[in-house]
Description:
The complex is a heterodimer. By secondary structure, chain A is mainly α. Chain A is 69% helix and 1% strand. Chain A has one domain. In chain A, a hairpin with a 2-residue loop joins strand 1 and strand 2 (122-123). Chain B is an alpha+beta fold. The A-B interface holds A 55, 58-61, 92-94, 150-151, 153, 155-156, 158-159, 163, 229-230, 232-233, 236-239, 241, 319-328 and B 1-3, 5-6, 13, 15, 21-23, 37, 124-131, 133-135, 138, 194-195, 198, 200-201, 203-204, 351-356.
Amino acid sequence: MWSFSNISTNIDEWLRSFLNPTWTMVAEMVIVGICVISLFAVLGLVLVLMERKVSAWIQIRLGPNRVGPKGILQSFADTLKLLVKEGMTPDGSDKFLFNFAPLLAIIVAMLLMAPIAFAKDFHMWDLNIGVLYVSAVSSISVISILMAGWASNNKYSLMGAMRSGAQIVSYELSAGLSILTIVVLCGSLNLNDIIQSQVDGWWIFKGHLPVLISFVIFIIAVTAETNRAPFDLAEAESELTAGFHTEYSGMKFALFFLAEYVNVFIVCAIGATLFLGGWMPFHIGNWTDFNHVMDYVPSSLWFFGKTFFLIFLIMWFRWTFPRLRIDQLLNLEWKYLLPISMVNILLVTLMAILGWHF
Amino acid sequence: MVEEIGTTTDGDLIINVGPQHPATHGVLHLVITLNGETIKKVEPHLGYIHRSIEKMCESLSYRQFIYVTSRMDYLSSHINNHGCALCVEKGLQIEVPARAKVIRILMDELTRIASHELWWGAMAMDLGAFTPFFHAFRERETINDIMEETCGARLTMNYMVPGGVMLDIHPNFRQRVHDFIRLFKSKVHEYEEMVTGNIIFQNRMKGVGLLSAEDAISFGCTGPTARGSGVSCDVRKYYPYDGYEQLAFDEVLETAGDSFARYMVRIRELHQSIRIIEQLIDNIPEGDFQAKTKAVLKLPKGEFYQRVETARGEFGVYIVSEGGTTPYRIKFRSPGFSNLSALDHMARGSKLGDLVAMMGTLDLVIPDIDR
């Protein structure tokens, strides 16, 4: 009874009790909007703190520990600092594009939230082409980076933006192909159908080696797509100072920063949904008793647990690996990942036709 | 509207890396001509932190000028001081007590390890890996603590004086060096696992920044930079000072001449330095730590030159004396300056990301280049 779907149903019924259907929808949309924005803020704060704590743990230091107990309020202090800082627009920059770019980055990240199922029957938009929507909208994010790099009128920014353009456009292919393997297996683009298809086991266990390969490729590709180390060439601070956001300060910089972390969350959520069953508890085939015990763990916990596990994985990469060079980065995609993904999707198709998966 | 950004007539992009740039480990100013991501020319511009140390030395006495040299190559200040002290001793023909000689070599080698460790961390940071920096500092801090106890300083030691060392070693010195060796040996495998064996790291380093042995000689490269190209040039072997000739250690040589070879030279030098320390730490002779010298030193008229091997290469001190209490002219031959001159040759045709890696393998300390 204490699940998200009950809460949302109760709110819906309560609103319908004194509003007509149109106003109910408007009120619900406002509520959803507020929820998304607050989720954004919370995610930003939590993920930044998590990144700092994880990096501190890997780097044998303590990490933030001054503001609040164990430093948990550090992110609030940082946010406050960024909010009161002057958001400068440099002379010689293209003022409109310069100011619009961080907004676009954050809009894209917000749009991507829509089809994600956060818990059982709890999502903003039950979209029948959810997977296609996610891969389509996520490619807009490259425009904001190109825009920021170009409008800054700074050579480092421009180079960072160009690198980022080449990188994101390339890695989208493998990310798309590895997503397609799951679509082929369950025959639906709807994220809820994909989750339902994993009721008797997650795809990463059911799909044998090909799905495992596509999972690994997916993780590599989304790490590159979100510009995280070892693929952080767009902001390679030892070469390009800060890449495309060199000229940004204050809240405009914070929006890019926030968008990066929210994007990490979203790609990990998509990865968890496709390969690890989203909110679906850990089920094994027809072990009904075992599955029943697993169902006692709330579905939202399953979803966030899996997502944060993947986020931790991506953070672990960042604090372990050195950065690739731009030509090595593109070679990795075009010479290795893309051919492997193509062969892999053929294998998966064969597997789906012959019904070799569990 | 967006203005036209700085380009050459060929349409190449010119960017100023530095003086304030996170990759230059200080305030090196590089003017880079780029065609896309490919480097066409690298032009180091010096002078941003020129402090005219050589000129300052002319008005300082022979005891005082040594302290200024700590501020040149601040990562191997002991070795700089050592070279200067040796040069003055050569002029005055002071016989340094055996105890002082051993302490000096111990300090030199500890400094070399500390310097190489900082380099290792910064090198990995140049390539985008942050974590090794903290791991390197874990060991380096131990050395700094040892230095602090004996010399009273952690970075600019000013410990070597003409005639020996300023103070005797701290009673804990021997124990703490033993502790350090034990710590280092238990942790050094992490360096190999985390960085040396990493496939991304090896791809970034191998076959990049090639410097042939001939070029290394003609650019005047010394130290690990030249030894990575197969040029045997260890001053400790060729012109031994203060008893290096009695110690068993190998001159590390790699022949590939690429960034990875220079990297491996430094990593292997760490082990050689540990070997030297192990030979000496239990055999520090008893006796004076400083020879009796006059209060005011006056070098006889003439020219004196002394070279020592710092962590970065050959450091030379050239003193011209007119017989007074201050030198008439002092010239330092700093290793970083010559090593930097090879950067343009190495970097042409490679990618921008590699330039940073190459600068990392040259182990540049800017105050050493720009005196």
